[in-house]
Design brief:
heterodimer, A: mainly alpha, B: mainly alpha, 12 helices
Chain lengths: ~270, ~270
């Protein structure tokens, strides 16, 4: 039993590697466009880093947070988000796939629908995000090897949070019809709240940031874990990521029962 | 002669008016913008509330807490109203539709200016209404006066023209570059940072402030927003003068690039 579980896991791991490699190669067919999107995202994120540099130059400490902490926060959020949508780029497309009846295509494969469908696309801008996070962390924070290993692990845990949230927010389409606009707003809220120190907010908002919009698993716990090299906080981040994935996939499978196929003839792209 | 000028400007006025009306048709978009601005402004409110409380200051860079929030609502409204001029010009160049525009009795840059102006006025007004509602809810009113609004209305058109001139010139770069997206992003991000969209220029390091204040970016975002929250005839005069100088310089530059670009237009067939 254990061996078969391991074999299954290994099999899915190979599938992930194969999909990432194929998606990357297909982006490389349009090298110029891919690179320009990566650079664009890099520049876009740099604006925020510049903002924080200017801000902390004027106000060196913000509720116990220093410039290094905020840069770390940006690095973790950007690379976590980047890894999530580089590997599982179709997570961003769930509402559209539901509305247009395009889940049909993914149902034809002898694989579990959700993980297989998520792997089907790579978001080019997300590669820029992932790269940005690592470059900024190494360039600004100059971590030692222990911090760097912890950072890598945390970005993977944060990626789970983002993948889970993509599934969760995207699955709204099963229940309310065309949810593209609402999903976009929720994702925007998640990303925005993830890039500001959690202790700026108080009361009910903090509760929301650990439940409905789980940005607390991005903007607080990982930073605490890195600051104190705390395995407990790192473990809580991972637990948060797994929790969001579980909730997301439960909602997805509940919603799937309400899914109606379309009669539109479409090719997988 | 005078009659001809009037007739010519009437054409562009009508183009602007038609674009305004067609943009008003997308009034429903206001709903999604409301959530977007509400989240951004809520986060800014938390950030600046903590900053004002921790520093114990009533004024930061000439702004009270409420003024800071109103300032940010205006800067966000200006940035979010930017139309995709360079993308449209880029497409016209690539697809060859530019040659169709050239045979019409219209100036291509002026046609685009009037169209952009009409679109931007509507988008900016919508954003501002939404932003004002959100900020009013969060921090209440600031001492707005008719004079302030009037001064602001004088500065905003030149700010839009300045922004247009740069975006239009970037679009024309499609004659030489494979992809103008990169230039577009670089410019828009420079406007965000050096324009003072996220933080007023008074809070930048002291040594860079004089330089940033004379650059065109701050006259697109920071100048009008500051005028709105802190109206002053003296500031308006300086701002209008700087805007006027930059409009003249960028118009000359755009015309030069446009002339060079037209030399590269090749039209075949009918």
């Amino acid at each position: 039993m254990e061996a078969s579980l391991f074999a299954k896991f290994y099999n899915y791991f190979l599938l992930v590697v194969k999909y990432v490699s194929c998606n990357f190669k297909s982006h490389m067919e349009y090298r110029g466009a891919f690179l320009s999107q990566v650079i664009a995202m890099f520049l876009n994120n740099s604006v925020w880093v510049i903002f924080w540099v200017i801000f902390f130059n004027r106000f060196p400490v913000l509720r116990g947070w220093e410039i290094k902490d905020v840069i770390t926060l940006w690095a973790i959020a950007a690379s976590g988000f980047g890894i999530a949508d580089t590997i599982c780029g179709n997570g961003l497309e769930i509402p559209r796939l539901i509305t247009r009846g395009q889940l049909d295509i993914w149902m034809l494969y002898p694989r579990k629908l959700l993980p297989h469908m998520l792997l089907g696309r790579m978001d080019a801008t997300a590669c820029g995000d992932a790269l940005f996070g690592y470059v900024v962390y190494i360039g600004f924070v100059h971590p030692d090897i222990l911090h760097f290993i912890m950072f890598v692990a945390l970005t993977l845990a944060v990626a789970l949070v983002f993948i889970g949230f993509d599934i969760l927010s995207g699955s709204l389409g099963f229940f309310i019809g065309n949810s593209e606009a609402l999903t976009l707003e929720l994702r925007f809220a998640m990303i925005t709240f993830s890039t500001y120190p959690l202790n700026l907010f108080d009361g009910a908002v903090k509760i929301i940031l650990y439940t409905l919009i789980p940005a607390g698993f991005v903007s607080y716990l990982p930073i605490q874990a890195l600051r104190n090299l705390s395995l407990t906080d790192a473990f809580l981040t991972l637990l948060g990521g797994i929790g969001v994935i579980l909730v997301g996939s439960t909602i997805f499978h509940l919603g799937l029962k309400r899914y109606e196929s379309g009669n539109l003839l479409e090719m997988r792209n | 002669m005078k009659h001809n000028y009037l007739q010519a400007s009437a054409k562009y006025f009508w183009i602007a008016k038609i674009t305004m009306r067609s943009n008003l048709a997308y009034f429903g978009e206001i709903g999604s913008r409301f959530i977007f601005l509400a989240i951004i402004l809520y986060i800014f409110m938390c950030l600046w509330r903590v900053t004002y409380t921790d520093t114990g200051a009533t004024y930061l860079g000439d702004f009270t807490f409420a003024q800071m929030l109103w300032y940010l609502a205006i800067t966000e409204s200006i940035i979010l109203s930017t139309p995709d001029v360079s993308q449209k010009v880029d497409e016209d160049v690539r697809k060859g539709t530019l040659s169709i525009h050239l045979i019409k009795p219209l100036s291509y840059p002026l046609y685009f200016l009037s169209m952009t102006f009409g679109e931007r006025i509507v988008r900016f007004t919508m954003n501002m209404c939404v932003g004002a509602c959100v900020v009013y809810f969060f921090v209440g009113p600031i001492g707005l006066s008719l004079k302030g609004i009037l001064l602001f209305s004088l500065a905003i058109p030149l700010a839009f023209i300045l922004d247009f001139l740069t975006y239009f010139t970037i679009g024309l770069a499609a004659f030489w570059l494979e992809d103008t997206r990169g230039l577009r992003i670089i410019y828009s991000r420079i406007v965000m940072v050096l324009g003072g969209m996220l933080i007023p220029i008074e809070l930048f390091p002291d040594f860079v402030q004089p330089i940033i204040k004379v650059l065109p970016f701050s006259q697109i975002v920071y100048g009008p927003a500051k005028l709105f929250v802190n109206p002053s005839s003296q500031f308006l005069f300086t701002l209008l003068l700087q805007q006027f100088i930059w409009v003249c310089l960028l118009t000359l530059f755009m015309q030069y690039i446009y002339k060079l670009a037209l030399e590269r237009v090749h039209a075949n067939g009918g």
